[in-house]
Amino acid sequence: MLTLRTLLVVALLASACGGGETVTPTTTTPAPTTTSTTLAPTTTTTTLAPPTIDELLALDRPLNLAHAGGDQDHPHSTMYAFRSAAEAGVDLLEMDLQITADGVLVVHHDADVFGTTGSEGVVVDMTVAELQELDNAWWWSPTCWPCRELADADYPFRGVRTGAVEPPEGFTADDFRIETFRSVAEAFPTLALDVEIKNRGENSAAAIAALVADLDALDRRGSVVVVSFSSDVVAAFKEAAPDVATSPGTDEMIAWILGGETLGDHPVVQVPPEYEGVPVLIDAFFDAVEEAGVEVWVWPNSADQEEGTFYAELLDLGIDGIIAGRPAMLEHALRKGGYAD
Question: Among the four 271, 276, 299, 303, which has the fewest Cβ within 10 Å?
Fold first, then answer.
């Protein structure tokens, strides 16, 4: 949903002089009056804005969230993935955030870089410049993600980042690098975001401060949901930005579902179908959800659940949003189920 702001600027200039002196009247012969009319062009500025989280939650249909841009269909957390997800018609982009050595948030899942780039290094010890030299599609394969033992030919985008392989039509080598959070948010001004703070412990404060600063700079406080597995991180973020929507961490979820404690101020909870082998999507869970008045977004546990039949099963359960590794397939399931806009 787009919010269209149209600004009509009309400039009127008028000048008047006055003073405190006594002026002696004089007789003058009026000069011929020449009237010149200049019509300034009317400038219309269109600003694209994402829907707020409140607006999305008010929609009478399930939401399509692209997990890392759709990591089963596209290289995890690349601009190529996010652009492809946007073209598929998703409602939100889901992503993981890590703080770098130079204090910038990048979109990256693991604490180290090996899992997507095949290189060595820890994100928090590296600068953005160092991270963006890496090939962020090194390990991605459409046949098996995240398999590591396949033949080189099974990793079709390996080498695009470094120039060894031509990028797909319409894309560049930069679309296969590790991206900053700000660059992704700026690239998709009409999409809301679901962001997970991965840093915990001593680096979490820096990540929280950087995220709040980025959200303010981007005017994004209303169009983002922030989550962490750490309930302490979620609590610290809420203290820093109480007006930003959040989803609870693991400890708070367990205390709520199993301990009967009141759920905090969160509009949505994000859960897998199973947690450590225990089914989550059971009657007791949905009873707690109904009592708390929250929305439920589900992320599949495994790659074999990332298919249309399983998405349809989740939709049949009344799930409010699916964080999908195959967002185009989910979009098809939504339309097949009669949930098209």
Answer: 276
